[in-house]
Specification:
The complex is a heterodimer of chains A (1001) and B (158). By secondary structure, chain A is an alpha/beta fold. Chain A is built from 24 helices and 52 strands. A five-stranded parallel beta sheet of chain A has the order 5-2-1-13-24. Chain A has a five-stranded parallel beta sheet with strand order 15-22-16-17-18. Chain B is an alpha/beta fold and 158 residues long. In chain B, strands 2-1-3-4 form a four-stranded parallel beta sheet, with helices on both faces. Chain B is globular. Classes of the chains: A alpha/beta (1001), B alpha/beta (158). Chains A and B meet through β4, α2, α13, α14 and α23 of A and α3, β2, α4, α5 and α6 of B.
C-alpha cells in the first residue's frame, strides 16, 4: 500500500495567484507553504494603481488578502526563499528551500519602522520603479506582509545606526544566515508570475535616453496615490504636468524581430485604463493610444472601451505599430509618426507610455529545471487544452502568468483551479497538518460591571515620539470603568501579548482596549490574545492613536496628545457597552448541486467528486456535452469528441455523481450549507453548495441571408460540415463579429477570432487552393492564440479589416453570392464571389438565465450573463455564500478557460463541504419585536435578503445571512433594529464622549 | 417658540475667538477608514480637530445619530464611504447618500446649519484625499463658528 498523501501543498510565488491558491487550500484543511523570493507577498498587483474594467483600487482589494494570508494559521510564508531541490512522487514530495536572511531577525522585527526613520541612506525604490526613494533598510510597501524590514546591502553604508535604535533588538547587523530546510508536501503549485519586458534594448523608443518616455508600470506608480508623485502625473524630467500623453501598444509583444511572437493579452486594456485614470487625475489631459488591434476580449471590456472613446474622448488609432519616437532636444517633446487612412501624420506629445509586454518569470527556466516541468517555445509552461493547469510532472500544477500572459481574474480562477487539483492529490491528508488552536473556556462576564484594561502603545517612537504616552495612560486610569492601564513599547510584540493575557487574569479584566495602530491589521491579533486569556474576543476595542493621530500630527505634540486622550475616552465609552458575541454556526450538508451538463458542469462535478463529495448534476436536455458536442477539432490537435466521450463515461462511472437529465430546477430555498431544491421531475435534493454551469448559446444571425441562402452558415455549422468530408469550397469568406460588437450587443465574444484561425488553417491544410478571407474589425487572438494568426497568414489566408462605418455587404444574384467590403488596411474596396460565407456568430447569454438567477437570487449583467461577486478577485463566486459559477454562464471563453473556472468552482465547493459547519458574522442585526411595527422597510434595504417577516408580520433577521453592514439599523423608523458591536448606544456614547468632555460616564 | 432654533449660546458660542471645532467623521471600515490609515502611513498632515468613528458601512450611519451628535454640540459631522459601486455591502453608500441629502434639507428646520453635515467618498488608496477633506471640512466648520447647540438645553430624543 502506498504511503498516505501528505496533507500539505507548496505554492511557489506569493503574487495574487500564489496568495489565492494558498488561501483556498488553507481554508480547505491543508497546510500551505508559500515560497516568495522578495521580502513581501503581493507581487505586481501591489504595484498597480487601479484595475480594469471597474477602476477598482488595486491595493484596496489586495490588502485584505495579504492580511488573511499573513495571519492564516495554516499558511507558512517563507519570504526571501528559493526552491533549491525537489524529489519524490505525487502525495509525497520533498522540497528543499533555501532562505537567505541578512541582518534582520524576521521573528523579532515588529515592523515599527524606526530603523528606516534613523537610516541615513536614501536610494531609489524599485517598488516605485525607481521613481521614488527609500532607505537602505525598508519594507517594499506600507501594507507589506509579513511586515518586517530588510536591509538592501547594495545601498547600506554599514553605519549600524539601525542596530542601535532597534527597540526589539531584531537587527543584528553582522548576521548573515542561510537556512536550508526540507519540506514535505503532497503537491506543488508554481505561480511565479511574470517579468515586464525591458524596453531599453529597443533604442528607437529612446527609453532611458528621453526622460519623458516611461513604461506602463512606471506610469502606474505615478498614478498611484501612494506612489512617488502622490498620484500626480508629472514629467520625470522637470515635474511639469503633461498636456498630451501617447500610449504605444505591443512593446515587446507580437514582434517577431525580437522573437516574441505572442500577444501579452493585457496591455491594450491596461493602457486604456491608464489613459482613463490619467485623464481623471489631470483635468484637460488628452490621451492617444496606438495599437495594431485593440484587444478588449474580457467581460464588459468592450463597454469600457466604448465609454473611454465616446464619453472621455480618448483616441485609439489602430493599424499602427509605432516604430520609433523622435525627441525635440530643446523642448523635450516627443513626436510620433503614424498612419491614418491615406495620410502619414506627425503628432507631438509631452509624454509617451510604452505598453510593455509580459515575459516569462526571471526564474522560470530555473523552476522548470528544478521541477522537471516542460516549457513551450515561448518560455512559459506547456499544457494541453483539456488539462490546462497540469504539467508533465504529476502533482505539480501551474497557475497565473507563468502559464501564459493573462489578467487578474483569469489568474485568480487558475489559482483556485490549481488549488482544487492539488487538493485532490492530497485529499486523504485533509486536516492532518492543520493547526487547531486550543483555547481555554470562555469566562462568563454577563452582568459584571465593566473592568477595563487599557494598553497604550509607544510603537517605538512612532507614537511615543509625538504623543505623551505616559500622560495618556495616566488619563486612561481615571476614566470610568478603567481598572488598569499601562504603556508598552510594542504592544503587538509576542511578549507584550503574554503580558496582556497575564494582566487580564491578575486584574480580572472583562474589557480590553489597545490604543495603538489600526484595527484593520491588528485587531485579529489582539482578539486572539483575549481568546487565549479566556475572554470573548468581542470584548476588545482599539483606539487608533498612530495612523489617525501621531503620524498625521507630527508637529503638534500637544494637540496629538489631547486627541489621543479623546480617542481613548471615546473607546472606553464604547468598550463599557461591549458584549460577548458568538459567530453563528451553520451545519453543512456535504453534497453539491451542479447546474448544467456541458463541459464546465461535468468538469465541476468530476472535480468535486475527486475530493470525495456527492454531486447532483442536472442537465436540461437529454444529453450531456452542451456546446462541446458541436466542436469537432481543436487548434492544439486534440480531438474534442473523443475527450467528450471520455468525460461522459467518467461521469457515468463515478458513483458519487447522480445524474438528472431532461429536467430543470422547480424551486430552490435555503442558504449555504442547507439548500432545498426540487426538480421539475419531482426529485427533491438537499445540498450544501451550488455551481451554476448553465452555459451560453450561439447567436442565430439575422444578417447576411443566414437561413435564406444555404451557402451562408455559422462557424459551428462549418465545423460540422468539415467532418462530413467531400467538402471543398473554393472561395470562403469568414465574417467576424456577427452579433457581437454591434449596436445591440456591445461586447466581444472572445473566442471567435481564434476559432476562425483554427477553421481557416484546417481549410487551407485540407486544400491549399481554397481561398480563405477573414473579414474582421480587430484580430483578437490574444496570448499564444497569436501563433494561430501567424500560421493562418503564413498559409495564405487573406485578411481585410472593416469598420462600423463601412460594414461588409453581401448580395445574391442568380449567379451566386457577391461580397463587398472596404478594407481599412489598404483603403480599397474589395469584391469577392464566395461559394461559402461563414458567419462568426457570437456567443450570447442563455435567455433562461433570468429564471435561474431569480431562483438562486443572484444577479445578472445587463447583457444577461451571471455576475460574479467581484470582477477581479472573486471570478467564480457570487456575493451569496455557497453559490458559485463557471464557464460560459459567466461570459464567452475558451475550453481551457471554462475548465479552469469549473475546477476553481469545484475547489471552492469542496472547501465549503469539507467543514462540519460554517461560521457566519457575529456582529449581526437583531430586531426588537416589541418595538417593530412590521413596516418592512428594513426588508427592502437589506442587500443580502437576510430579513424576513415572522409569523406576526414583524421583521426577523436571519443571522446566518446577515453580513453586519447595519443599513437596516439606519433605516428603521422605530429604532427597532440594532446591530451587535456597532449598536446605536455604542456609537452614540462614542460620539457623546467626544463632544462632551469627560462624557460618556 | 423654538428653543432649538434660538440656541442658548452656552459655553462655546461666545468664544468664537480661538475656536477649535470638534469634528466627527463616521468612516466605513472598508474604504474611508483605510484611506485614513493610509493618510497616516503616508504622513499626510491634517487638521487635529477630526475624530474618526469606525462603522462597517456608511449605510450604517443613522440620521438620528447624526442629529444627536449635532444637537449635542458637535461642530461638524461627516459621513464617508466607498466610492459609488465600490461598496463592500453592494450599495450601502447609495443609501447613505440619500439619507444625508435628506437630512441636510431637514437640519435648518431644527436650527442647524446644513453645512455642518458633510458626505464624501474616499477610497482606501486615497490617503491624501482623506487628509485634504479632513482639513478643508474643518476649515469650513471653523468659518461657521461654534455650534450654538450644546445639548444642555435640548430634550433628549430617541
Amino acid at each position: 500500500m502506498a504511503d498516505k498523501a501528505i496533507g500539505a501543498v507548496m505554492v511557489v510565488g506569493g503574487g495574487i495567484a500564489g496568495i489565492q491558491s494558498a488561501l483556498d487550500l488553507a481554508d480547505g484543511g491543508f497546510r500551505v507553504y508559500v515560497i516568495e523570493r522578495s521580502p513581501s507577498i503581493g507581487g505586481v498587483m501591489a504595484q498597480l494603481d487601479k484595475t480594469f474594467p471597474t477602476n477598482d483600487c488595486s491595493m484596496c482589494i489586495l490588502a485584505p488578502k495579504l492580511v488573511d494570508a499573513g495571519r492564516h494559521p495554516n499558511i507558512d510564508l517563507k519570504i526571501l526563499s528559493e526552491v533549491t531541490g525537489f524529489k519524490g512522487k505525487p502525495g509525497n514530495f520533498k522540497v528543499e528551500i533555501t532562505r537567505k536572511t541578512l541582518s534582520v531577525d524576521l521573528d523579532k522585527c515588529t515592523g515599527c519602522g524606526e530603523c528606516a526613520e534613523i537610516c541615513p541612506v536614501e536610494g531609489t525604490n524599485p517598488f516605485d520603479e525607481n521613481l521614488g526613494v527609500r532607505k537602505a533598510i525598508y519594507v517594499p510597501f506600507p501594507q507589506a506582509v509579513p511586515l518586517v524590514y530588510t536591509i538592501d546591502r547594495s545601498m547600506c553604508i554599514g553605519c549600524g545606526e539601525c542596530e542601535r535604535f532597534c527597540g526589539p533588538n531584531a537587527i543584528v547587523y553582522d548576521m548573515e544566515e542561510t537556512v536550508t530546510e526540507s519540506i514535505k508536501v503532497g503537491a506543488v503549485i508554481l505561480a511565479p508570475g511574470f517579468e515586464e519586458f525591458d524596453p531599453s534594448k529597443l533604442t528607437a523608443y529612446g527609453y532611458k535616453d528621453y526622460p519623458n518616455v516611461v513604461t506602463s508600470i512606471e506610469f502606474e506608480r505615478m498614478m498611484s496615490a501612494s506612489g512617488p508623485t502622490g498620484g500626480h502625473i508629472l514629467s520625470p524630467l522637470d515635474g511639469r504636468i503633461p498636456e498630451k500623453v501617447a500610449f504605444l501598444h505591443c512593446i515587446g509583444s507580437r514582434d517577431s524581430s525580437l522573437g516574441i511572437t505572442y500577444c501579452s493579452s493585457v496591455c491594450c486594456m491596461y493602457s486604456l485604463k491608464e489613459a482613463i485614470i490619467a485623464q481623471e487625475h489631470t483635468p484637460g489631459l488628452k490621451t492617444h493610444l496606438f495599437a495594431m488591434d485593440f484587444r478588449a476580449v474580457g467581460k464588459q471590456f468592450e463597454d469600457y472601451r466604448i465609454r473611454a472613446e465616446e464619453e472621455l474622448g480618448i483616441k485609439i488609432t489602430k493599424n499602427n505599430r509605432i516604430g520609433s519616437i523622435e525627441e525635440d532636444p530643446v523642448t523635450r517633446k516627443l513626436t510620433i509618426r503614424y498612419i491614418e487612412g491615406d495620410h502619414i501624420l506627425d503628432e507631438e506629445f509631452d509624454m509617451v507610455v510604452l505598453g510593455v509586454g509580459l515575459r516569462p518569470p526571471i526564474n522560470g527556466d530555473y523552476l522548470a529545471r528544478t521541477f522537471g516541468v516542460e516549457l513551450n517555445e515561448h518560455g512559459f509552461t506547456a499544457h494541453s487544452t483539456f488539462k490546462p493547469l497540469e504539467t508533465n510532472v504529476p502533482g505539480v500544477f501551474v497557475a497565473g502568468a507563468f502559464r501564459s500572459p493573462k489578467d487578474i481574474p483569469d489568474t485568480v480562477a487558475e489559482a483556485s483551479g490549481a488549488a482544487a487539483l492539488a487538493a485532490a492529490v492530497v485529499v486523504e491528508g485533509r486536516g492532518d497538518l492543520v493547526t487547531e488552536i486550543e483555547y481555554p473556556e470562555e469566562r462568563d462576564v454577563e452582568g459584571q460591571e465593566p473592568r477595563i484594561g487599557v494598553f497604550v502603545c509607544h510603537c517605538g517612537t512612532n507614537i511615543g515620539g509625538v504623543v505623551d504616552v505616559p500622560g495618556v495612560t495616566e488619563y486612561a486610569r481615571g476614566l470610568p470603568g478603567v481598572v488598569f492601564a499601562d504603556d508598552n513599547l510594542y504592544t503587538c510584540s509576542a511578549d507584550t501579548n503574554k503580558y496582556i493575557a497575564n494582566m487580564i487574569k491578575d486584574h480580572d479584566l472583562n474589557r480590553v482596549i489597545v490604543a495603538s495602530c489600526t484595527p484593520r491589521t491588528h485587531e485579529p491579533l489582539f482578539r486572539q490574545t483575549l481568546k487565549e486569556a479566556g475572554l470573548n474576543p468581542y470584548l476588545f476595542e482599539m483606539a487608533n492613536i498612530r495612523d489617525h493621530c501621531s503620524w498625521i500630527h507630527m508637529h503638534e505634540p500637544n494637540e496629538a496628545t489631547e486627541k489621543s486622550k479623546d480617542l481613548v475616552r471615546m473607546t472606553v465609552s464604547k468598550a463599557r457597552l461591549l458584549e460577548p458575541l458568538v459567530k453563528p454556526r451553520i451545519p453543512i450538508t456535504p453534497r453539491a448541486l451542479v447546474i448544467g451538463g456541458g463541459l464546465s458542469g461535468m468538469t465541476a462535478a468530476l472535480e468535486i467528486s475527486e475530493q470525495g463529495f456527492e454531486v447532483d448534476l442536472i442537465e436540461k436536455t437529454n444529453a450531456l456535452g452542451g456546446n462541446l458536442r458541436r466542436v469537432t477539432h481543436s487548434i492544439t490537435g486534440e480531438k474534442p469528441q473523443d475527450i467528450l466521450k471520455e468525460t461522459i463515461a467518467a461521469i457515468n462511472e463515478r458513483k458519487l455523481i447522480t445524474l438528472h437529465t431532461g429536467t430543470e430546477i422547480e424551486t430552490l430555498t435555503g442558504y449555504m450549507g442547507n439548500f432545498d431544491v426540487t426538480l421539475k421531475d419531482g426529485a427533491v435534493l438537499k445540498v450544501g453548495a451550488i455551481v451554476v454551469a448553465s452555459g451560453a448559446i450561439e447567436y442565430k444571425p439575422t444578417e447576411y441571408y443566414y437561413g435564406r441562402n444555404p451557402n451562408v452558415i455559422t462557424q459551428l455549422e462549418l465545423e460540422e460540415e468539415m467532418t462530413k468530408g467531400a467538402f471543398a469550397p473554393k472561395n470562403v469568406i469568414i465574417i467576424q463579429c456577427v452579433g457581437a460588437r454591434d449596436e445591440n450587443h456591445h461586447n466581444c465574444s472572445r473566442i471567435c477570432c481564434t476559432t476562425s484561425m483554427k477553421n481557416a488553417i484546417a481549410l487551407k491544410k485540407a486544400n491549399p487552393n481554397t481561398n480563405v478571407y477573414i473579414i474582421y474589425k480587430d484580430i483578437r487572438t490574444y496570448g499564444f492564440n497569436e501563433d494561430s494568426y501567424l500560421e493562418a497568414a503564413r498559409l495564405g489566408v487573406v485578411f481585410a479589416r472593416y469598420s462600423d462605418e463601412s460594414k461588409p455587404r453581401l448580395s445574391y444574384t442568380k449567379k451566386g453570392l457577391v461580397f463587398r467590403v472596404f478594407d481599412r488596411f489598404t483603403n480599397t474596396e474589395i469584391t469577392i464571389a464566395p461559394d461559402l460565407v461563414v458567419l462568426n456568430a457570437a456567443t450570447h447569454p442563455d435567455p433562461k438565465n433570468k429564471v435561474l438567477a431569480g431562483l438562486l437570487k443572484v444577479p445578472l449583467t445587463q447583457e444577461g450573463y451571471f455576475l460574479e461577486a467581484h470582477m477581479k478577485l472573486r471570478p467564480v463566486e457570487f456575493a451569496t455564500d455557497g453559490i458559485f459559477a463557471c464557464g460560459l454562464a459567466l461570459g464567452p471563453k475558451f475550453i481551457s478557460e471554462s475548465i479552469n473556472q469549473a475546477t476553481a468552482a469545484a475547489g471552492k465547493v469542496a472547501a465549503v463541504l469539507s467543514k462540519d459547519f460554517a461560521e457566519a458574522e457575529a456582529n449581526t442585526a437583531e430586531v426588537d419585536s416589541e418595538i417593530c411595527t412590521g413596516c418592512g422597510t428594513c426588508i427592502q434595504v437589506c442587500p443580502y435578503s437576510a430579513i424576513e417577516r415572522g409569523e406576526d408580520r414583524k421583521a426577523v433577521v436571519n443571522a446566518v445571512l446577515c453580513k453586519g453592514c447595519g443599513t437596516c439599523v439606519a433605516t428603521c423608523p422605530e429604532l427597532a433594529i440594532d446591530i451587535h458591536h456597532y449598536s446605536n448606544e455604542q456609537l452614540y456614547q462614542q460620539a457623546i464622549a467626544l463632544i462632551k468632555n469627560g462624557g460618556g460616564a | 417658540m423654538n428653543p432649538i432654533a434660538e440656541g442658548s449660546g452656552g459655553k462655546k458660542a461666545a468664544t468664537a475667538e480661538g475656536f477649535e471645532p470638534r469634528v466627527i467623521i463616521f468612516a466605513c471600515n472598508w474604504c474611508s477608514y483605510s484611506g485614513a490609515d493610509l493618510a497616516g502611513t503616508s504622513r499626510y498632515q491634517y487638521s487635529p480637530n477630526v475624530r474618526i468613528i469606525r462603522v462597517m458601512c456608511s449605510g450604517r450611519v443613522d440620521p438620528s445619530l447624526i442629529l444627536k451628535a449635532l444637537r449635542n454640540g458637535a461642530d461638524g459631522v461627516m459621513v464617508s464611504g466607498c466610492h459609488p459601486a465600490d461598496c463592500h455591502y453592494i450599495n450601502g453608500n447609495q443609501k447613505a447618500e440619500v439619507r444625508v441629502s435628506f437630512l441636510k434639507r431637514f437640519l435648518p428646520h431644527v436650527g442647524i446649519d446644513p453645512r455642518r453635515l458633510g458626505l464624501e467618498w474616499i477610497s482606501g488608496s486615497e490617503g491624501e484625499l482623506f487628509a485634504k477633506i479632513a482639513t478643508s471640512f474643518t476649515e469650513e466648520i471653523r468659518e461657521l463658528g461654534p455650534n450654538p447647540l450644546t445639548g444642555d438645553d435640548v430634550p433628549e430624543v430617541r
